[in-house]
Design brief:
The chain is α/β, with parallel strands linked by helices. It has 14 helices and 21 strands. Bound molecules: beta-D-glucopyranose. Beta-D-glucopyranose is lined by residues 74, 77, 114, 178, 214-215, 283, 346-347.
Amino acid sequence: MNIEMPIHEDHPLPADQDWWRGCVIYQIYPRSFQDSNSDGIGDLAGIINRLPYVASLGVDAIWISPFFTSPMLDFGYDVTNYRDVDPMFGTIGDFDALIQRAHDLKLRVIIDLVLSHTSDTHRWFRESRSSRDNPKANWYVWSDAKPDGSPPNNWLSIFGGPAWEWDGERMQYYLHNFLKEQPDLNFHEPQVQDELLDVARFWLDRGVDGFRFDTINFYFCDTELRDNPSLAPEHRDFSTAPEVNPYNWQDHVYDKSRPEMIGFLQRMRALMNEYPSIAAVGEVGDAQRGMEIMGEYTRGDDRMQMCYAFEFLSAEKPTGERVAKVLGKFARVASDGWACWAFSNHDVERHVTRWGLNDAQARLYLGLLLGLRGSVCLYQGEELGLQEAYVSYEDLQDPYGKRFWPKFRGRDGCRTPMVWITDNLNGGFSDVKPWLPISMDHLGHSVSAQEHDSLSMLSFYRRMIAFRKAHPVLAKGSFRLVTTTPDYLAFIREHEGRAMFCAFNFSETDHTVTLPEGNWHTAPGTSFSGSLSERGAYLPPYQAIFAELETNG
Ligand code: BGC
């Protein structure tokens, strides 16, 4: 197919190499955002129609989960053609129109490149599996069986079972960190790297502003395919995989997060630098060394700009102490790095349900998220305060959930469609039955129900995002811990002669926090009811305060 390239000379957004630092990104899961062609599945034209809504939130950028050609066994994270749009989502022309519309609305566009693995229906894999000496024979991770016929090592797939699948055509095993239909590409093969860099160039030429690199620390595995050591039960950490998954029983030193990755990051960054104002966020899933890897991947200016953190995606509720611990560790092991924090996404239970938050707590946690040093990623529907939807086994789509049911119910409960209109059975998402059921509990929280209510969660999100934007100290400033207990947290952000004192009360009793010396005054515009007095910052239950100080001039 001959695809014409659009010309993007008049990018309406200012050239700003640093736009990503402290930005707020809104994640769109395209299957579930807006259906425009009545097939029950969201699409790119649907996203275009809803972009004014996204822009009205005040976010800087959107991250769109994969829309490339795919058999959809992992709902787009199994790619058959990196350079085209799946017909289910539209056409490449729709994508060009989406970029144009987003830019007109001053939204930057980040796309989700899934480079670690392809679909097993990708022509590269078909060729690679056809023999041991074809031109792409080395493009995937192949290995002979052990003499007893078992897989070459003990590596496990995140989606359950061994990470190796036997292929009768080649009479060898191939590696898959996720589904067996998602074979891992072999990044040790230079041609694979070249080809994937060219994929990135294809989308840069179409005008994207950046990438989210899926499972970025999985690109390289150990060339000797050594066994992972086991982890003692007390060292297991469930931040990247549910507790029921034995993947957590290994220390993943050999199947991912290998040192060769830095060279590839530098190649990718050099390519991105050929274009103005491009930024990338790499998803780092590593329960043992996540923050250290984030630090390595974002250090200096020749790697990724940001890495996406799992620390606040786990079931463990971020108490004041936990937040301080995470940020303290990040400052220690990744002092020159940059994190992108999120509480919810398309892979985890929605955070208001996961942490059992009431309305006031949900607001407090948003205040916290937008007060953190780092960039922020919000997931569609969290601005409506949506709870995790209940999805019965009969309606379940996610293969991960099917595998570990019922202890782990999978990821469908956070992927049910957006609710735009209350008086509509399908929430205004589609005029036919959607691919996942709409939660009846969600309908009352639709955009139409909240849009004109200044007290709604949606209005609160808009207000808080605007507040962060109005105070660059929150986006770009340094972070200094003032005081913490499980019940409250106070820190100071500082930037270019300005300081912002931020304090959060996570408990149901009042707290007074002493402020450092200086003439602090409450920064207006958050609708939190914390206040200042002679004695310090007074915080009613579940309330926060943001107070400003000019530190010079
Ligand atoms: C994505 C998942 C996906 C997996 C495999 C991730 O971390 O966010 O949705 O299933 O990578 O590509």
